[in-house]
Amino acid sequence: MEKTTVITHMDADGVLSLATFLKYNRSIVKEEDTQKNHYTIRPSIYFTSPVNLLNTILISILNNRNVNNLDLLYVFDLSGTRESIISASIYKKVIWIDHHYWEIVNKPENIEFYIDHTSNSACRLVSKYFSVYDFDDLADEIDTNNIKTDYGERIRTIISYLRDENRGKSLSEKLYKFAEDLAYTGIDIIYDTYYESMIDLYKKRLMEIDEIIASSLNIYRVADLKVAVVTSDKSLPVYHIYNKLMDHKDAPFDLVLVIFYLDDVTKIEFRTQTKFNTRDLAKMFGGGGHILASGATVDGHITIDEILRDIEMRILNNNKRSL
Ligand SMILES: [Mn+2]
């Protein structure tokens, strides 16, 4: 029996990608059960973020004491680096599905890459891979911050609540349970009281978050750009800050920067309300992502002034080059 490991992004797109995989996986496990010649090994599931991907791959390898269990690894909604790709290739076979923008990398022959940065969500690509189309439209809605349905709104809120309330192992367990509920019970599970109460609680939490936004918001002119900066020492839902700032009297902002001062790192989230290319800026800080939404994590704490100065230099240099 083949052992499967899944590493997925800790956001809505990653959770819906996992739900898609779980639904597919259960259908093949059922088939094998009826053949009565198989026993099943539960897949190992890991949630992570781009900056922690390498560590997560290495931990997943260390957790398999038996090297024969390193059969098959799936990676969803996370872009690879030289180091993470080399580490993943320790598995016998790897299926890597993502919709972020990738730098050209060397591709080990035991890794199959399904990378399409024009896809609105990774879940859409995962759905195509497994031919399970339950969650792709919802993932598109949420990942592009273009909510159209009550389902999309609720799923986004539940995941924001879980991420706000939990850390580490308990967060992974809760996200896994949510993906399982979606896959095995179906999408209407989100109308259950267990999830309904999370949505109610998070509405109250959002009012507190609004106060944090209002009290930490600063607006700057950087080169010819209008820049809104929100800082926090705790993780906040960036979509909510973005949407909130859409109603600001000075909106739209060329750049919305959300700066998190966490333990020993600075996390910078880049968004734009005017289709400015944020990915180039994120790249400058060692990060990446999409044109309209990207992020970077920097060691230590860097100030707003330092960040804005780097951005200004970059824009002025670009302007010079295009003259
Ligand atoms: Mn995504």
How are the strands of the largest sheet arranged? 6-7-8-9-11-10
- Ions, cofactors and other bound molecules: manganese (II) ion
Mean pLDDT: 94
Number of strands: 11
Structure description:
By secondary structure, the chain is of the alpha/beta class. The protein is 46% helix and 20% strand. The protein has two domains: 4-196, no CATH class; 217-322, Diaminopimelate Epimerase, Chain A, domain 1, CATH 3.10.310. A six-stranded mixed beta sheet has the order 6-7-8-9-11-10, with helices on both faces. It has a five-stranded parallel beta sheet with strand order 2-1-3-4-5, sandwiched between helices. Helix 1 packs across helix 7, helix 5 crosses helix 6 and helix 6 (150-165) packs across helix 8 (193-216). The chain is globular, with a radius of gyration of 20 Å. Bound molecules: manganese (II) ion (MN). Manganese (II) ion binds next to loops. The site of manganese (II) ion has 6 residues, from loops.
Strand-helix topology:
Layout: E1 4-9, H1 12-35, E2 44-48, H2 53-63, E3 72-76, H3 82-88, E4 93-98, E5 111-115, H4 122-130, H5 136-143, H6 150-165, H7 168-184, H8 193-216, E6 218-222, E7 225-232, H9 238-246, E8 255-261, E9 265-271, H10 279-284, E10 288-289, E11 293-299, H11 304-322
Parallel strand pairs: 1-2, 1-3, 3-4, 4-5, 7-8
Antiparallel strand pairs: 6-7, 8-9, 9-11, 10-11
Helix pairs in contact: 1-4, 1-5, 1-7, 2-3, 4-5, 5-6, 6-8
The structure holds manganese (II) ion (MN).
The site of manganese (II) ion has 6 residues, from loops.
